[in-house]
Amino acid sequence: MRALPVLVSILGLTVTLPAAAQEPPPSYEEELVVREAEVVVEPPEGMSESQRQALGPSSLLLLEDGAFREITAVRPLTPDGGSWSLLVYVDTGQSGRETLARSALALARRAGRLAALGEVELIVADPEPRRLLAGTRQPAAIATALADLAATARARAEEAPAALDLAAVQARARRLLECVGTHSVGGAKALILLTDFMLTPSPAPAGEEAAPSPRLLAAFPEIGQALAAFGWVTVAVGLTAEEVKRPAEELSEMGRLQQLVRGGRGIDHFAPLEAGRPSRLNTPGALDPYLEPGTALLRALLREGAGHLVATEPQLDAALAGLGRRLLVAYRTPAQIDGRPRALEMRLLAGDLPLRVPRWRQSGSPEQLAEARGLRLLAGGRAPSDLPLTAEWVGGAEPPRLRLTGVPLSSREGGPLRLSLVFGPEAAQHLIVPLPEEAVPWRRELTLPAGTRRLAVLVEDLGRGLWSGQLVAEPESDDGL
């Protein structure tokens, strides 16, 4: 999000006190900083290219937290415009070997299309994320990296996938959130997540029914909201079956319907009727993830960011083509930077049609990311030292208190600051600290929940994206020494 040199002064707001009070009427002056934000929008299905290219600020209506926002620019993206940042992310514990191989090979065959969309980066988490391919627009490099990934997966096809409990998958989901949080680039961003939709059941004790393995995107609360708020369009790809070619002689639509009804065939073989044009769902298995109850939460999370579910290669083609037809919309917002997501709605004025748009926009780093970082610190992880922080445990009282001191900062340099106290997976507190115009050290003394003995403390500059943190524990008692 870029700051615009636009300051709206709120002047002359006074409160007149009764004459008997013998006091001058109070007044104040505030500066409301108007910033420019961007959001990627999907045009209505069936809109012609000429209509899409003709869209402008006056064609759309945007609401942010229910308030109208001024749209300043509408830029139609193109399949070969290089406007996208594409992050291909693989968690080896959340994708079967064959699913991973087929999905990676399908992307490798489309390396040219990916490169035309923009820079492609490949990251594999096993469980720690590591970069296999730095951002590039070279189709050969993209194809080679994805083909190597597929070959590695097939070489390990005989290995049984590790059983992951909910806590382990939650930790992996937090790593995903931390990974995308380091990509601060603006503009159009797509997270291509290679994963299984129908995960194999986790081993169960004898006599008990095996439960499906927990899913990556469903493991960490509100991760879909955080990904959308960061601006990521998530495309979940899980190709589980080889492509099945359609017979050379097509049945008529009525013939296909009769075959479906008379043959008693299951949903695995269902092919939706065509209405004048081919359907990307007209492939065996294409509808399975949409009808499987276990994918309901995954589908809901993808809707948060206006993303796609891809179970077949035609669906992959449609998803990539859809990215190339989106719009990058810029608008002005006076919303404060506080790390809380802002709800977005957008409509096409002609026909009053709702448009697919990420339902959230970040206003600084989301709180979920601070909590993920804090939990990593509690587990022994490290934090950068961008914002030096001193944390002092104030003993002798119950509940305990924590005294925090930071280096001199001013609102001209960045800010505001957010202090986050993370006590565990389900317990965290966040506090916004405004900065003064002149650089002075900042201080805060906070009361901790009764019984606190250990916590992670983070400080983040929400305006600049810098952060630091440390683990703080109650000092050991000197009794008995």
In brief:
With 481 residues, this protein is α+β, with helices and mostly antiparallel strands.
Write structural notes for this entry:
By secondary structure, this protein is of the alpha+beta class. Helices cover 24% and strands 32% of the residues. It has twelve helices and 22 strands. A six-stranded mixed beta sheet has the order 8-7-6-9-10-11, with helices on both faces. Strands 3, 4, 13, 14 and 15 form a five-stranded antiparallel beta sheet that branches.
Distance between the termini: 56 Å
Helical segment count: 12
- On the 0 to 100 scale, the average pLDDT is 79
Beta-strand residue percentage: 25-35%
Q: CATH superfamily of the largest domain, please?
A: von Willebrand factor, type A domain
Total individual domains: 3
How many E-type strands?
22
The radius of gyration is: 26 Å
Largest sheet: 6 strands, mixed
> What name does CATH use for the topology of the largest domain?
Rossmann fold
Structural class: alpha+beta
Regions with little confidence, pLDDT below 50 for 5+ residues: 1-31, 243-277
Strand order of the largest sheet: 8-7-6-9-10-11
Shape: globular
CATH architecture term of the largest domain: 3-Layer(aba) Sandwich
CATH class placement of the largest domain: Alpha Beta
Helix amount, in percent? 10-25%
Give the SSE map.
Blueprint: E1 2-14, E2 27-41, H1 49-53, E3 60-64, E4 67-68, E5 71-76, E6 84-91, H2 97-109, H3 111-117, E7 118-125, E8 129-136, H4 139-155, H5 166-181, E9 188-194, H6 216-219, H7 223-229, E10 232-237, H8 253-263, H9 288-291, H10 296-304, E11 308-310, H11 313-324, E12 327-333, E13 342-348, E14 353-354, E15 360-361, H12 367-378, E16 389-394, E17 401-409, E18 417-424, E19 427-433, E20 440-447, E21 454-461, E22 466-473
Parallel strand pairs: 6-7, 6-9, 9-10, 10-11
Antiparallel strand pairs: 1-2, 2-12, 3-4, 3-13, 5-12, 7-8, 13-14, 13-15, 16-17, 17-20, 18-19, 18-21, 21-22
Helix pairs in contact: 2-4, 3-4, 5-12, 7-10
